[in-house]
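Chapter review: from sequence to fold.
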Amino acid sequence: MEEKKGTGTTTVKKGTGDTYEFNIKDLIKSFFGVIKTVVIKPSDFYQNMPTTGGFPPPLIFLAICLAVSGIISAIVWGYLGAFLYYVIFGLIFSFIGAAILHFIAQQFFEGKGTYEGMYRVVAYAGVVNLVTWIPVVGLIAGLYGLYLQIVGVEKVHQITAGQAVVTVLIALAVYIILALIVGVPSFGMRF
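The token string follows.
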């Protein structure tokens, strides 16, 4: 595997074409490469994903996914505020969701990962936002996003699959409570 861990690089597993890090300098190729790898091979993706290298690559990847969903939602549903709703709240809640997952994995299961690694899991699992605007498909995508997070928590924190499931379910409950307090109940599936 090519192991370049700074911003502006793409991590690719030699011989497979699988992409494990978004690269703004190779926007289109790395964006679709990450989508393909995280959706089709989530275990492989999170096993090989760099857990360091800064927040910009996963943050920009998530922002693009949220922006696409927000633009399409605004067009389809006729509500221009959907774009800002998706992007602003999605990005804010991604940091909060990562913090909750990280705290639970470390405090309850002695997880070995870092907050940055956990943020990367949440951001790249945000790929599901590309289709959450579609009725019914959005619900299935949201559930698949939880699965992606379970796989990512397991790999990044080096805990068992069962512990990762419990981590994500506890985080989901906490997250829903926080979202209801803030007044954003639909974000229960978006962290």
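Two observations follow directly from the output. Residues 81-109 form the longest helix (29 residues). The chain has seven helices and no strands.
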